[in-house]
Design brief:
It is found in: Cell membrane. This is Undecaprenyl-diphosphatase. It is a multi-pass membrane protein. Its main location: membrane. With about 270 residues, the protein is mainly α. It has one domain. About 75% of the residues lie in helices and about 0% in strands. The longest helix has about 30 residues. The protein is globular and about 50 Å long. It starts with a helix and ends with a helix.
């Protein structure tokens, strides 16, 4: 493992942490950045496994709240209902992720132009939804109707296409189904925990035998970088979107998508 690879892994890890929980597609960003850097990981496992850093970041920020939920779960119906809602939202992506795993990793992950296109289209959708004039009906992420939780889960399946964004698809889905901007982002945090943990576990299972010691070291560097940078985002995002909404992220997606297309045309 040379110094250049370590620096690339560090930069990609930081990029993962900064973009995982905002609706811009962390996977799309690190796949595009890796393409132009010439970074190659075994089985594209690096791009998935470093998400563990982001998972631990959100777990650390929400530790007290999650612990309270765990204590209340055996006896509190509201907590039981919310956990059921998270599981309902997680289920569609879990099923499709397993069934379409090979296509996702060998075709969609290897198509940079598709990533640029979905970044742009997703940015346009995000700008439209952010300005959509409707009065939100739901303001507490733990009290959505079960049908809304499942609907958000269906929207999350769009994130199987890199560049779409897991957080972006869940936030857009929540907004369209009547949630306000803050609770939509917060539920995206909660849904990220089982979704990203499941993706991590399944990808590790599929690629573990092919990973070398050098691969694991590179993943470790990316993991630490993702953890540190994700902490910053998780602690600041809810307050930001409550005041300013999501338009900044929509424009960012469009700019990155266009810049990626220009880079592909110029450099291949």
């Amino acid at each position: 493992m040379d110094d250049t690879t370590i620096v690339e892994a560090l930069l990609l890890g930081i990029l993962e942490g900064l973009t995982e929980f905002i609706p811009v597609s962390s996977t799309g960003h690190i796949l595009l950045a890796g393409h132009f850097l010439g970074f190659e990981s075994t089985g594209k496992a690096f791009e998935i496994l470093i998400q563990l850093g982001a998972i631990l970041a959100i777990l650390s920020v929400y530790a007290a709240r999650l612990w309270k939920m765990a204590l209340d779960l055996p006896r509190d119906r509201a907590t039981q209902r919310f956990v059921l809602g998270v599981l309902l939202a997680f289920l569609p992506a879990a099923v499709i992720g397993v069934l379409a795993y090979k296509i996702i990793k060998t075709v969609l992950f290897e198509t940079p132009m598709l990533i640029c296109t979905t970044l742009i289209l997703g940015g346009i959708v995000l700008l439209w939804v952010d300005r959509w004039a409707t009065r939100p009906r739901y303001h507490d992420a733990t009290r959505y109707p079960l049908s809304v939780y499942f609907g958000i889960g269906l929207f999350q399946c769009l994130a199987m296409i890199p560049g779409t964004s897991r957080s972006g698809s869940t936030i857009v889905g929540a907004l369209l189904l009547g949630a306000d901007k803050r609770s939509a982002a917060e539920f995206s945090f909660f849904l990220a925990m089982p979704t990203m943990a499941g993706a991590f576990a399944y990808d590790l299972y599929k690629n573990y035998d092919a990973l070398s010691a050098a691969d694991l070291q590179i993943i470790g560097v990316g993991f630490v970088a993702a953890f540190v940078s994700a902490l910053f985002v998780v602690r600041s995002l809810l307050n930001y979107v409550s005041v300013r909404g999501y338009s900044l992220f929509g424009w960012w997606r469009i700019i990155v998508g266009i810049a990626g297309m220009i880079g592909l045309f110029l450099f291949g």
